[in-house]
What we know:
single chain, about 1050 residues, Alpha-Beta Plaits, nine-stranded antiparallel beta sheet, 32 strands, transmembrane helix
Amino acid sequence: xxxxxxxxxxxxxxxxxxxxxxxxxxxxxxxxxxxxxxxxxxxxxxxxxxxxxxxxxxxxxxxxxxxxxxxxxxxxxxxxxxxxxxxxxxxxxxxxxxxxxxxxxxxxxxxxxxxxxxxxxxxxxxxxxxxxxxxxxxxxxxxxxxxxxxxxxxxxxxxxxxxxxxxxxxxxxxxxxxxxxxxxxxxxxxxxxxxxxxxxxxxxxxxxxxxxxxxxxxxxxxxxxxxxxxxxxxxxxxxxxxxxxxxxxxxxxxxxxxxxxxxxxxxxxxxxxxxxxxxxxxxxxxxxxxxxxxxxxxxxxxxxxxxxxxxxxxxxxxxxxxxxxxxxxxxxxxxxxxxxxxxxxxxxxxxxxxxxxxxxxxxxxxxxxxxxxxxxxxxxxxxxxxxxxxxxxxxxxxxxxxxxxxxxxxxxxxxxxxxxxxxxxxxxxxxxxxxxxxxxxxxxxxxxxxxxxxxxxxxxxxxxxxxxxxxxxxxxxxxxxxxxxxxxxxxxxxxxxxxxxxxxxxxxxxxxxxxxxxxxxxxxxxxxxxxxxxxxxxxxxxxxxxxxxxxxxxxxxxxxxxxxxxxxxxxxxxxxxxxxxxxxxxxxxxxxxxxxxxxxxxxxxxxxxxxxxxxxxxxxxxxxxxxxxxxxxxxxxxxxxxxxxxxxxxxxxxxxxxxxxxxxxxxxxxxxxxxxxxxxxxxxxxxxxxxxxxxxxxxxxxxxxxxxxxxxxxxxxxxxxxxxxxxxxxxxxxxxxxxxxxxxxxxxxxxxxxxxxxxxxxxxxxxxxxxxxxxxxxxxxxxxxxxxxxxxxxxxxxxxxxxxxxxxxxxxxxxxxxxxxxxxxxxxxxxxxxxxxxxxxxxxxxxxxxxxxxxxxxxxxxxxxxxxxxxxxxxxxxxxxxxxxxxxxxxxxxxxxxxxxxxxxxxxxxxxxxxxxxxxxxxxxxxxxxxxxxxxxxxxxxxxxxxxxxxxxxxxxxxxxxxxxxxxxxxxxxxxxxxxxxxxxxxxxxxxxxxxxxxxxxxxxxxxxxxxxxxxxxxxxxxxxxx
Length: 1027
């Protein structure tokens, strides 16, 4: 096939790739961050009507004991409250979670003495991202609506419509649980009149269900047996309980029947209207932007049609899609701007639009190949992958620049176009392939990292590696074809070589000519670079903390309040203050606001009409809205963009263990006060109760009296349960569902009324409750925390705004050590979870990665250069680039907060690959000069003369490609600003100093011609022996 035909085919295929890539880009999923899988299972246990202590003793302790045998289990953490518990199981990152999930289900079924009336724990596999909330919503009305109306609309209208949205896995309705129960509420006085015991009523109500028997044969036919025991709620009122003196006592005479929510509802409001709050959990690998867009469309249709008859509306209470789209648009814009800046730089060097056009033809082709690869690999377009593309602009242009610059070097020597293209490509193909391989292999350790935070960089590694592989193919195949098409001797004017080149070469080779300058640079250069890097290094952090345009306020209660009290004392008062303030001219403007309250906290959120108004909002909330709320502590915080994908990524959990719960609470209270005083700007709160704030009525049975009456303590407890929260009787099929059935007494107006309640005892008569038990008021914790089977007290610490986790954690540890020494209880010990645990895990993994990367690079240099000496020479160029990266981070940190977070750290790994590429070009040319018989100085001078232009062009494109990402001031840019700063600073420092440093290094006797030839001979003999 003729060369022209081959060129045409290559160019047509390249254009086809661009078209396919452009189309596939519109079909890729959009997200803020890549999916992050955490190896964790959560077991939710529910036992309504039971206190935390009973649930702990009866359910959670045996459950934890059974689960301890699980393979790979690292930690068990259980939070036990009244009526429910959540048990979290933590596993290593390399475990098979599907297998572990099945093993957990098997172990649950083997827990000994599990109560028959308690359902097995519900297991949620959070390794697939189930702990992340996709969005939250409010169903609200300007009119007063009953709970039954909200439940009816949710179950009958909203839930069926949202079930059709592909990206939603489940609706989380724990705040306003729509699960219902049937309450048979009796009047104790009426029961006393009929001398009815709760046992008699319960006996009549149990097993109200249809039952079937075997078959009965009559004659030649078989008949199935069916017993009709099921009653409707209306029929239930006529249920016969007993007969007293010839009078048939029916249920309606002694009790009322009602269907009520199973759990107490929290208070929620939206724009001041009472609302029903729920959240939506995503499916694995969800397209967040597309799913939220579909949810909005569903809500719009519901508001226009199905909800109108109920005078209700539904709206997203938290819409992060705007912030996510804004963050993505910023990277898109910076990507385009970086391309234009790189184009301007190349025009400065080439002064030839055809050359620039050929080079930049590589950009759409390579990006198209990357997008096709992302589609095949099921990757998403997110901030990390797009930042990888922006970084890839400089990388993929490297190979194109080297090829085209070498072709033009031959054209300046009046060589024919075809021959210049062939020679130009052939001469640099080996260096391009080896340098590209070194850059790709550097990402292998990144892919091997297993921590949750490290999963962010799989997308980055894939994007850049794909771009590098594509750049080699495009530079060596596509661009030569394009050059043959566009370049011809009679159509192109070749610019003469710049007359200043010789002056620049002399400047860069000055250290090679001057002994004192050479040894001064070598003696002080590396130690100085390492010292400056250590001095300028910012504090360690887990992840950046980009803000978004919303304001959050937390109102913590000093003592638990009932749901009704939280609504009346806090929520209603705050709402009235907000509405009154909105009439004033100086009040900050906001589009949407909402509120949630439970027994321990109220949370408010606002979406300001204008960006950058957080300080104004904080002052307004603190001074006008949240002030003088009795028994509360309040915090005002900006919304965090990464909370959408990584909730609690800046929270440190501090655990106190080793002693009894009262002693742990006492130590925790003192430590809480100590840390709040030591860090007034930090948010230090209790994560488990430090005070016993829940009022509790303790009944102590009169055992002697019970024996005389023929009762057991367990039977008395059953009667007490029936008089209070309700005695569980099983399930009754009603309203299309099997609902739990409870027998409960009317709420007593006081303790005395309850204790004077008369209880019917068969064969004895009516006996007042106070004769059967003594009552005492006490306080108990609202929740119990267990970590690894031990009673635990926990504090939650969030650093001040802008403070790095690493430095702050060290300060916290010092304060804790001082507190422990002063407190004097040697039994108590401390542990850390959350960000503290994540940071230490990542740092260890990162240091291992750094060591492996350097070893890999050294081996690759030896394989490329066939010389350990030259390989080490290349490696010694790295500290200068690291110094540049650290100095740039220090500069940005002095202007705006910039910590050394995990995304920034990965920037240093990428920087190693970039700097190595330039060093390889220089050293390989030096090696070629030595092999061709040049002296050491002549080889250095020729290498700098030939490679200076491509090194500066590739360095410049890398810098300009990342510069917009570094300088972007918008919210959300903090995610990738540190990574971009490392690349810009490191490559700038490398451009300024690396040529002079390498000139000095290669001029020492260690790299002299005789020494180098001797090593080549040794390597050759070793290879021959192996062969």
